[in-house]
Amino acid sequence: KLLALRSVYKDYFDIGAAVNLTTIESQKELLTAHYNSVTAENDMKFESVHPSEEAYTFEAADKIADFAAANGMKLRGHTLVWHNQTPDWVFQNANGAPVDRETLLARMKSHIDTVVGRYKGIVYCWDVVNEVIEDKSGVWLRESKWLNLAGEDFIAKAFEYAHAADPKALLFYNDYNECNPEKRDKIIRLVQSLQAKQVPIHGIGLQGHWNLNGPSLAEIREAIERYAATGLKLQVTELDISVFDHDDKRTDLTEPTADLLERQAERYGEIFELFREYKEAITAVTFWGAADDYTWLDNFPVRGRKNWPFVFDAKHEPKASFGKITDWQ
Ligand code: XIL
């Protein structure tokens, strides 16, 4: 009988999966067998739960919360403040003009109060602020309506509002390209500036959207070391390992080749070995999906391309990658 991922890792960290209303049905057996945590892939984002100023729509988010509760899984909240998947109304007034700082912060507060308040004691951990660090070298924060209209301290305020709404929830800053040395250092500078101001932040989310040849194991190790040195908890929040090299833009594969699957398995193996080494810092590893029948990487970033980034195949059978992350026991 197959070992359950969450049992293999019970002395290390939680094993999570991002889910949506389709996959909680189509992947139900797999999810309940192997994972002890879930994140809503889209259904707790601003545009999903708060499409207009007066309207909150929690049906989908509630179904995911119910799925987690019914199956004894933890629930991560994703995400409160982001430049994407946030409706335009947030940033403008009735005649379409940009809102002032006070109005935007008041809207942010009421969103956070309502959403965090609704899942108080249910969502144990929130990605409060997502992706505010700029990728481009030499530039500090990402241009966004949040930044342009409210100024840099919208970040600290988001954490303060979230903490007030649920003082027991763990509050995370979450970002991608997190192992790139320059971006990593900018992320650390941000969280340290928050810590210096006594802002309630408890963790750093490493998204982990990786591929076959990057980031290198050395870069991942260095990033974990440096993030852990902030004293904050770490979680890998959105792990997937594309079967393509970073510069491989082929669109003709309808099945992954044996060679790609082999290389992916080696990579999963070495990466989870590294995660185990840092079990004092890493409290959860969440995949951005569960099995290869559904991944957001289909068509992204290369249109017309299928991907196979998980440790279970499209039929929910374990891949060589599953073997490599469980065979150490
Ligand atoms: C992605 C979802 O997986 C897609 O379904 C959606 O179309 C776009 O967002 N970083 C994040 C996640 O923090 O919220 C993103 O999720 C993937 C990148």
Structure explained in plain terms:
It contains 12 helices and 9 strands. It is of the alpha/beta class and 329 residues long. It has an 8-stranded parallel β-barrel with strand order 1-2-3-4-5-6-8-9, surrounded by 5 helices. Strand 5 (170-175), helix 9 and strand 6 (203-206) form a beta-alpha-beta unit. Helix 6 runs parallel beside helix 8 and helix 11 (258-277) runs parallel beside helix 12 (320-326). It is globular and about 55 Å long. It binds (3S,4R)-3-hydroxy-2-oxopiperidin-4-yl beta-D-xylopyranoside (XIL). (3S,4R)-3-hydroxy-2-oxopiperidin-4-yl beta-D-xylopyranoside binds next to loops.
What is the topology?
Elements: H1 5-8, E1 14-19, H2 23-26, H3 28-34, E2 37-40, H4 46-49, H5 59-70, E3 74-81, H6 101-118, E4 125-130, H7 145-150, H8 154-165, E5 170-175, H9 181-196, E6 203-206, E7 209-210, H10 217-228, E8 233-241, H11 258-277, E9 282-287, H12 320-326
Parallel strand pairs: 1-2, 1-9, 2-3, 3-4, 4-5, 5-6, 6-8, 7-8, 8-9
Helix pairs in contact: 6-8, 11-12
The structure holds (3S,4R)-3-hydroxy-2-oxopiperidin-4-yl beta-D-xylopyranoside.
Spatially, the strands of the biggest sheet line up as 1-2-3-4-5-6-8-9
Written as H for each helix and E for each strand, in order along the chain, the element string is: HEHHEHHEHEHHEHEEHEHEH
The rounded distance between the terminal residues' Cα atoms is 15 Å
User: Compounds present?
Assistant: (3S,4R)-3-hydroxy-2-oxopiperidin-4-yl beta-D-xylopyranoside
Q: For the CA atoms, what is the radius of gyration?
A: 19 Å
Structure class: alpha/beta
> Main beta sheet, described?
8 strands, parallel, barrel
Helix content: 25-40%
Low-confidence stretches: none
Catalytic activity: Endohydrolysis of (1->4)-beta-D-xylosidic linkages in xylans
Keywords: Carbohydrate metabolism, Glycosidase, Hydrolase, Polysaccharide degradation, Xylan degradation
Pathway: Glycan degradation; xylan degradation
Domain GH10: 1-328
